[in-house]
Amino acid sequence: MNLFKKIYAGSVYLFLYAPIVVLIVFSFNDSKSRGSWDGFTLRWYVELFHNSEILNALYYTVSIAVLASLLATIIGTVAALAIYYHMKPFQKNIVMNLTYLPVLNPDIVTGISLMLLFIFVKFELGFFSLLLAHVVFNVPYVVLAVLPKLKQFNHSLYEAALDLGATPRMAFRKIVFPEILPGIITGLLFAFTLSIDDFVISFFTTGSGVNNLSILIYSMARRGIHPTINALSTLLFGAVLLLLLIVNRRITKTEMN
Amino acid sequence: MKKIVKFLMIVAVCLLMGAILVGCGGEKKAQRELKVYNWGDYIDPVVLADFEKETGIHVVYDTFATNEDMYVKVKSGGSDYDVVIPSDYMIKRMINEGLLEKIDFSNVPNYKNVDAKFKNLAFDSQNEYSVPYMWGTVGIVYNKKMVTDPVDSWNILWNKKYEKQILMLDSPRDSIGITLKLLGHSLNTSDPEQLEQAKNKLIEQKPLVLAYVVDEVKDKMIAGEAAMAVVWSGDAMFIKDKNPDIEYAIPKEGTNLWFDSIVIPKGAKHKTEAEEFINYLARPEVSQKNAEYIGYATPLPEAKANLEESVQTDLAAYPADDILKNTEVFDDLAKNIAAYDRVWTEIKAAR
């Protein structure tokens, strides 16, 4: 039984990680084709840093993801607080349904409708339309990540703080905020990853000169994905792995304290 | 944790400021600008850099993956490209819908460099809207070690000897098109009877087909996973280069001749710059650079003459004129495209 468990878990992870391993291996392949192995090379990594098209797309991808996830986190957290503390049950119901809807809505509908809206109000498509679009589809995820934390939070703690002489602001900062912070961080990371790999909505809401990585990689489909993309993906995977390790270490550290 | 939050805020503010500065900076500059929309990886980056250096025009360069993606962007009015490089049938559709600007050919003197046989093409019969960029054919690549019969007819794709060794293109127009050619029809047909014949023929072939592929065809043929495949000539060049056992043949029944041509969308803000760019791309030495980088065929005889000898004489890239006589260019099917899509779905769903 134990062996079965191990085999089961092992194969799940194999399926999850085998494609990434293949990608990393082929980023060192000295051939433009995946069909043949022509030897080990670092040439794609060198080319990557000389390819202004890819670097440009990387810049837009990262800056949009950072900005959109931060803005969405602020808006989403404030919204969650308002929904939880200042709404009557029936209002809450309506607002929560309105929040769920964009999550369930197919990306292509969101993308096309945003594009039509931007064109309708004559908002120029480009960096800011892309940023706005990303904030829009990120906000619901943050709300949905923060609300459960608020529900778990023992409200008496907040009242106790007020009783002990804290101002509402101070009580929020010292008591409520630290308690819901894990939810906020989850929402932030969720928004960040969603923003990084979004293609459909970005494709419709971006303008000339602003490309993100998913659009760029997709546009290579006709002539074959360039191996520099393998190199870039390897670097991104490494960066995310590193980030994960750092976050995990911090969490274990704070738990020990 | 608080420190992280603070740090992230600072990063965000910096980025936002940077974006605003970049945004405003672009508007203030008096520099001439040009917005180009092309297929991914479909130009030698050196050409763009040289053009910028020579003319001082700043090029904003974006890429697309399919004609349909490009069409959505241009048609919606959300984009403001000055130069676009779509394929033949899409150009016809865009002309019909009034999405293209007529090119002022007095600003494009290099148009004279284009081979006469690539002028007056079906999709732009008066030569008003487009200048050819690259061209090619559809044919069969085969592995000499695995295919012993002569490859000179589409019929070989129906040869039972090569069961499960044939790769077909997962593209309705190309796969149905070559079948129509084999049956002696036009690949732009709108006759339901002829389409039905093609459908039955392709369903009959299905047990022999290893897979319906698009881009993967290159890797599979290089690795020797299949004996033959239907491919675009540009891909054939790439495969031949990586695997010397591969040959390319254009069947005698005729095939599709395709073009990617340069056009100017309606309402382009930088039409003068666009025409300057088109004129630049029609220089033999520039077109030669692009042909070498992309591996597709240039429509300029002078550019071709400077390519490597082995490429020039390669019949895969530059087929003989008598083969070209038998070819057909895709027309815009307009509403009839639905019939092709339906037939293709039925083929894919058939057991």
Number of alpha- plus pi-helical segments of chain B: 14
Helix content of chain A: over 70%
Determine the structural class of chain B based on helices, strands and strand pairing: alpha/beta
Helix content of chain B: 40-55%
Q: What are the secondary-structure elements of chain B, in order, as H or E?
A: HEHEHEHEEEHHEHEHEEEHHHHHH
- Quote the average pLDDT of chain B: 88
C-alpha end-to-end distance of chain A: 38 Å
Rough outline of chain A: globular
- Tell me the overall shape of chain B: globular
Q: How large is the count of helical segments of chain A?
A: 11
Number of strands of chain A: 0
Radius of gyration of chain A over all CA atoms, rounded: 23 Å
Describe the structure.
By secondary structure, chain A is mainly alpha-helical. Helices cover 79% and strands 0% of the residues of chain A. Chain A starts with a helix and ends with a helix. The mean pLDDT of chain B is 88.
Give a summary of the structure in a few sentences.
The complex is a heterodimer of chains A (257) and B (351). Chain A is an all-alpha fold. Chain A has helices at residues 2-26, 43-48, 52-86, 89-104, 107-120, 127-152, 155-163, 168-197, 200-205, 213-219, 227-256.
SSE layout and pairings?
The complex is a heterodimer of chains A (257) and B (351).
Chain A: H1 2-26, H2 43-48, H3 52-86, H4 89-104, H5 107-120, H6 127-152, H7 155-163, H8 168-197, H9 200-205, H10 213-219, H11 227-256
Chain B: H1 2-28, E1 33-39, H2 45-55, E2 58-64, H3 67-76, E3 83-84, H4 88-96, E4 100-101, E5 131-143, E6 166-169, H5 172-182, H6 192-205, E7 209-213, H7 216-222, E8 228-232, H8 233-242, E9 246-249, E10 257-262, E11 264-265, H9 271-281, H10 284-294, H11 301-305, H12 309-312, H13 321-324, H14 337-349
Parallel strand pairs in B: 1-2, 1-3, 6-7, 6-8
Antiparallel strand pairs in B: 4-11, 5-8, 5-9, 5-10
